[in-house]
Amino acid sequence: MDKYLKFYIDGAWVDPIGGQRLAVIDPATEQPFAEIAMGTAADAERAILAARRAFASFSLTKHEERLALLERILDLLKQRNDEIGDMISREMGAPRRMARDEQAGIGVAHFAQTIRAMREFSFEYMQGTTRIVHEPVGVVGMITPWNWPMNQIACKVAPALATGCTMVLKPSEIAPVNAILFAEILHEAGVPKGVFNLVNGDGPTVGAMLASHPDIDMVSFTGSTRAGVSVAHAAAPTVKRVHQELGGKSPNIVLRSANLAAAVRAGVDKCFANSGQSCNAPTRLLVPAEDMDEAIGIARQAAEAVRVGAPCDPASEIGPVVSEAQFDKIQGLIRKGIDEGAELVVGGPDRPEHLSAGYYVRPTVFARVTNDMTIAREEIFGPVLCILGYGSEDEAADIANDTPYGLASYVQGEPAEARAFARRLRTGVVRLNDSAWDGAAPFGGYKQSGNGREYGKFGLHEFTEIKGIVGFGD
């Protein structure tokens, strides 16, 4: 508990320079359960300078040393997986089993995948008489969100360590304690002092310092598109690299060759997973217009079967959303959908009837939605599904692409048709026929969903600069 009020800087837990604190709220009870220190710009600078000093030596470490370091971290993550999962459940409301298996487990998966990618990655090779060298990009400022906290920490920190970068992490102040546990693991694994630094705080203070500081060579940000624009503006004067994974409004296209019942049920489940708090959630379900009535019936039955409850209840499939602010935003958008004439199939405003406290949202399905409605345009980030009808496949592609976002999309149908349709979609990721998550696949978006790619070898590329030593082979 004492570490909650400290920062991890230059290999030690240190007291903050300022005295501001923030309560960490359990969204299932609406009550505080912990308190963290909130960093100042001076705290952030102290961490940045520590990372800058450490870069001189860590950037020159051997591939084998960094690989061994990642393997030690992976072993410790496995040992403390359930502890991290239980904390994530407490912080952001995910059901405990899901928090352990998926929320914490995905951190383990990213380190394992990065280790595999690192073993295969060519950091140096000859091209004619030129030596091509992938060198660490430098000091990286990392700003991560609350919805999949360990996922985004791991998929940034693992490739940064693998490539020889040093870093300062600012996790979300809404779900910050899992990052403190993560820092303990890195310390125990023997990460050299100054290589990894952790400063809690808010975006306008610590986040802005990371984005604007001249000693930060790259900022890696995951969050809303609005916040991503602010980060890019702050980073522009120093011409640093900006990597962003931002918002989404992902379409899920059910082709006529698909099994409608299976596709709609899977679409509901994927949309509502993590209480709808995933940037790549398939929130726009596109079905053939002639199948709209049948799809509505299937979606209603699937949504009504979703069990909403306390994260500690083994029967709960989804828990609360993360905060009062998020709850209020979702409620406002549900009411907006009703006001704009979408057909409310199930759910609606307010909490589920059996829950009187906590930021719980009723699983909600709207049908006969048009793509100009607010609920089809804005990222709701809650368990709210919009069903839209289409005539031809050309119209389906037009509707799917008619969004400022381009993070993910989903296609259900006969495999050859689904593969062909995937090529028409302007998104960084396309998942076919309820396929499983692939930690080696590139993750990132087109358009206002960001730039750059994470995961596996693609993450390694993002954290390197490319140098050509011409005449090396003469």
Structure description:
With 474 residues, this protein is an alpha/beta fold. The protein has 2 domains: 2-246 and 449-469, 3-Layer(aba) Sandwich (Aldehyde Dehydrogenase, Chain A, domain 1), CATH 3.40.605.10; 251-439, 3-Layer(aba) Sandwich (Aldehyde Dehydrogenase, Chain A, domain 2), CATH 3.40.309. Helix content is 40%, strand content 21%. The protein contains 15 helices and 22 strands. The protein has helices at 41-58, 63-79, 81-92, 96-120, 149-163, 177-189, 203-212, 225-235, 260-272, 292-304, 324-339, 374-377, 393-401, 415-422, 456-462; strands at 7-9, 12-14, 21-26, 31-37, 124-127, 130-136, 139-143, 166-170, 196-198, 218-222, 241-245, 251-254, 284-288, 343-346, 364-367, 384-390, 405-406, 408-412, 429-432, 446-447, 450-451, 464-469. Strands 14-15-16-13-12-18-19 form a 7-stranded mixed beta sheet, sandwiched between helices. The chain has a 6-stranded mixed beta sheet with strand order 9-8-7-10-11-21, sandwiched between helices. A hairpin with a 2-residue loop joins strand 1 (7-9) and strand 2. Helix 1 (41-58) runs parallel beside helix 7, helix 2 (63-79) packs antiparallel against helix 4 and helix 2 (63-79) runs antiparallel to helix 5. The mean pLDDT is 97. Its EC number is 1.2.1.3. Keywords: Oxidoreductase, Plasmid. This is aldehyde dehydrogenase (NAD(+)). Residues 13-467 form the Aldehyde dehydrogenase domain. Belongs to the aldehyde dehydrogenase family.
